[in-house]
Amino acid sequence: MACALWTCLVLALLPSLAASGFPRSPFRLLGKRSLPEGVVDGIEIYSTTISCKVTSRFAHNVVTTRAVNRADKAKEVSFDVELPKTAFITNFTLTIDGVTYPGNVKEKEVAKKQYEKAVSQGKTAGLVKASGRKLEKFTVSVNVAAGSKVTFELTYEELLKRHKGKYEMFLKIQPKQLVKHFEIDAHIFEPQGISTLDATASFITNDLLGSALTKSFSGKKGHVSFKPSLDQQRSCPTCTDSLLNGDFTITYDVNRESPANVQVVNGYFVHFFAPQGLPVVPKNVVFVIDVSGSMSGRKLAQTKDALFKILEDMKEEDFLNFILFSGDVTTWKDHLIQATPENLKEARTFVENIRDQGMTNINDGLLRGISMLTRAREEHLVPERSTSILIMLTDGDANVGERRPEKIQENVRNAIGGQFPLYNLGFGKNLNYNFLESMALENSGLARRIYEDSDAHLQLQGFYEEVANPLLTGVEVEYPENAILDLTQNSYQHFYDGSEIVVAGRLLDENMNSFKADVKGHGAINDLTFTEEVDVKEMEEALKERDYIFGDYIERLWAYLTIEQLLEKSKKAHGDEKQNLTAQALELSLKYHFVTPLTSMVVTKPEDNEDQTAIADKPEEGAEATSVTSSQAYLTSYQPPQKTYHYVDGDPHFIIQVPEKGDAICFNIDEDPGTVLRLIHDPVTGLTVNGQIIGDKGSSTDSKTRKTYFGKLGITNAQMDFRMEVTTEKITLWNGEAASIFSWLDTIVVTQDGQYLLFSSRLSVSINNKKNMVVSFGDGVTFVVVLHQVWKKHPVHQDFLGFYMVDSHRMSAQTHGLLGQFFHPFDFEVSDIRPGSDPTKPDATMLVKDHRLTVTRGSQKDYRKDARVGTKVMCWFVHNNGEGLIDGVHTDYIVSSLF
Ligand SMILES: *[C@@H]1O[C@H](CO)[C@@H](O)[C@H](O)[C@H]1NC(C)=O
Ligand SMILES: *[C@@H]1O[C@H](CO)[C@@H](O)[C@H](O)[C@H]1NC(C)=O
Questions:
Q1: Most buried among 116, 156, 675, 725, using CB within 10 Å?
Q2: Same domain (yes/no): 815, 683
């Protein structure tokens, strides 16, 4: 199985993809025959669907499982999906009895804390971990009440890479019980036209699959459906266990009438390049093989088997040599020799006699290989139009000679000097794979793990086959200057037969009519240039019919490729550059909702927790990069909140939580900087909160684009004769005429007994060092003011405040104001959910306060708990300054001054 360079580096291995989506029960009842069909340990999984949509190699897969607890007590239901390491999870939602808990992608460290907290509190938490060679397993369990239903929905995306002439989608199937409605439904759309399409299942022959499996393709569209009935799922006619257990694989390829294909949609383009029928460029291969003591036995035997097979496949034009390293370095020949039949015969004898011995001197083995390849070129021992490849195989770390990985890397980098690629094969687990990977990457190659297993020789051979047939070398993909932005990697040392080069980018001018793309490379016989003229308008027209799949696939494909390449580059970078690359990858991961090694998915409902004191920076500023470790995702699922709160933050975004609905409503108020708005006014308790709007630095006057925030809050309690003014710089408290001024830098608690005795015993103010301030009036009125700090020299943004009412239960029924009016219970109905102008944000009709409004599903952020990125809160957005939702119109809430 082949693997495009960058994929392997990031999450490892194949382009295939696997999914199952099946709750498993921890154990099974012995008397299961007496149970209704399809119910195991009280849990009935009545539906599992895997829906795959592939558009131009970009796969979007949704695994949905629905289960019901038929037992008379709460039961744990688990959901496992195995997916390819190369895929990014993009969404996960959990729906319990109609309440949906959406997933949010967060920076990993942030999510990790939430995950750990959830676990420590015994709450539901899910995890993704590596599973086998090419898969990752996503697992989550939830406790489901008797009679309740649960739906799990996991979405992941992946760019399918072409290996040995095919794209492969790999779905791991393992339902573990009979499922009334089980279905795989795959739709493939390829603008170049589909040339072959097949689907196979490892657990059953195609004959037996019979009517359950249908596959068809015609023109640009392909379809595979697998829908076994309950009886077809049985492992035998009278059995109640499932036969479905194994791999379901869909393979296809596209027409190759033209060597390249460019697609443009919404200003993003992708360029696929895979010329056919070119002669193979002769290659000069040096194998640098670890024969240290630890290779003895099966590993060495398998290595020899693989080498025999590789020798069989060598072409007469090729040149080769073997270098063996242990404590010492020995070579087969002093220089590269041609793969003539006589020489190959001699090579077989040499391989036959390889013996293991001693230590591991990687440095000297590699340097010998490099100098041999360099010399062969310099001394014209190899053909002019040939290409050189260095393949190193080791099963351990260097333990003699130069042992410092950084030093070995430096030596190798300097010796190769960009002349040819180095491929590192790491045999088994007992080695520093990161080192092998980073060294291969900085020398335009890749690393591959060879798993210690009975098929290790096939893995080795498989790798060799991928690089055995270079058709072009020094491939450069060129676009018109000043027309293209954000290009993904566009130069490759080799184009190998059966693979494909994919370059994506953005058009500087979306209205550009046409552009020309050139691919240049050195072939076996001459230098070649492939030119592709792209008529953008015609293209967009032709791709219209693809809209039935998903419209932004090129943009997402671009983001996927860019993130993978940034992660790969960051693996070989150091210091500031590494930080910068990681930061860029993180930003894109968050923007495009990809669970990458830098991010995690967190499923949560914001819960009310007064002692929470995190939060400070404005999200787009801080995002410090964290180091790349594994591609774990964390997932936590909290119980629905017991209490609720309302808040205003950001551009003033008002978020009103409606706990009865498990949902939220949001709206914005757009007013000029300087305007003061009444947020809360309670004539009974005497509490009033007003907020003054500020704009960005050099604020634009266009209310559509400008950003406004709250920069100042005025809080008064007439009964207590106190006032408080909160700005982004300081906090001033007045008790009568006496003023005390605090800085946000203070960490301080002001109470009756404290040093700063100012107010009645019922008041407490705590400032938490630059982060937030919690103000309570006894038991029953608490709010939090959050300080958002931006980088001081930021050209546009400035610091601002968020206001979170976390406890309002002592406030009177007469409370009013933009936030205050929602402290009383109120109801709304949402119906007729329909596609909106933005496909990701449906519109709906909301009945509220006797008004019928058109609302849009959106999200806002809650920064109360989460330092940088905030927690996403899904809400129904009411347009036009909350018109119809708020009493009166928003200008009714404008007041003349803060106090
Ligand atoms: C995640 O999936 C849910 C349920 O299908 C959907 O409502 C939501 O919009 C999705 N989120 C994203 C970011 O795609
Ligand atoms: C990375 O570096 C580039 C060029 O030096 C700079 O323009 C960019 O803002 C940096 N990106 C990040 C996220 O630090």
A1: 156
A2: yes
Structure tokens at 43: 């849990």
Q: For residues 738 and 801, state if they share a domain.
A: yes
Q: Is the per-residue pLDDT at 124 higher than 60?
A: no
Task: Say yes or no to pLDDT of 628 above 70.
Answer: no
Residue 66 Cβ < 6 Å to ligand 1:
no
On whether both 314 and 339 belong to a single domain, the answer is yes
- Residue 458 pLDDT level (bands cut at 50, 70, 90): very high
Question: For residue range 561-582, what is the model confidence (pLDDT) as tens digits?
Answer: 999 999 989 888 888 999 999 9
Q: Is 871 a domain residue?
A: yes
Calculate the dihedral angle through the C-alpha atoms of 690, 695, 697, 699, rounding to the nearest 10 degrees.
-160
Does 636 fall in a domain?
Answer: no
**Greater model confidence, 121 or 720:** 720
> Ligand 1 centre from 102 Cα, in Å?
7
Residues 605 and 487 in one domain: no
| Residue 579 CB–ligand 2 contact under 6 Å | no
If asked whether residues 318 and 431 sit together in one domain, one would say yes
Closest ligand 2 atom, residue 583 Cα: 13
3-state SS class at 314: coil
pLDDT at 718 over 80: no
What is the C-alpha separation between 68 and 41, in angstroms, rounded? 11
Distance CA 231, CA 37 (A): 11
Query: Quick one: pLDDT band at residue 634, thresholds 50, 70, 90?
Result: very low
Q: According to the model, what pLDDT value does residue 419 have? A: 93
CA distance 173 to 608: 40
pLDDT tens figures, 513-550: 888 888 999 988 888 888 888 888 877 777 666 554 55
- What pLDDT is recorded for position 368? 97
Which CATH number is 555's domain given?
2.60.40
Residues 68 and 122 in one domain: yes
Q: Residue 858 Cα, ligand 2 centroid: separation in angstroms?
A: 30
Co-location of 45 and 127 in the same domain? yes
Q: Which two tokens stand for residue 690?
A: 């007003």
| Mean pLDDT along residues 321-337 | 95
pLDDT for 119: 61
Q: Does residue 327 have a pLDDT over 70? A: yes
Q: What span, in angstroms and rounded, lies between the C-alpha atoms of 322 and 392?
A: 10
- Picking from 421, 440, 468, the residue at the C-terminal end of a domain is 468
Nearest protein Cα to ligand 1, atom 9: 840
pLDDT of residue 491: 94
Question: Which residue out of 61, 89, 91, 838 has the highest number of ligand 1 atoms within 8 Å of its CB and is therefore the one to mutate?
Answer: 91
Helix H or strand E segment including 591: helix 575-592
d(CA 226, CA 491): 40
> CB burial class (10 A; 0-12, 13-18, 19+) of residue 380?
exposed
Name the residue at shortest CA distance from atom 11 of ligand 1: 91
Angle 405-416/362-378 helices, nearest 10 degrees?
0
> Is residue 153 in contact with ligand 1, taking CB distance under 6 Å?
yes
Whose CA is closest to atom 14 on ligand 2? Answer: 580
CA separation, residue 766 to residues 317, 651, 746, 802 (Å): 79, 25, 9, 16
693, 711 contact by CB (below 8 A): yes
Ligand nearest to the CA of 595: 1
Give every CB contact of residue 792 below 8 A, 6+ residues apart in sequence.
none
Give the domain CATH number at 359. Answer: 3.40.50.410
Q: Domain residues for 790?
A: 646-894
- CA–CA separation, 484 vs 501, rounded Å? 18
Asked whether 163 lines ligand 1 (CB < 6 A), one says no
Q: How many domains does the chain have?
A: 4
723 vs 24, which has greater pLDDT? 723
The verdict on residue 342 lying in a domain is yes
Q: How far apart are the first and last CA of the chain?
A: 71
Report whether pLDDT(889) > 70: yes
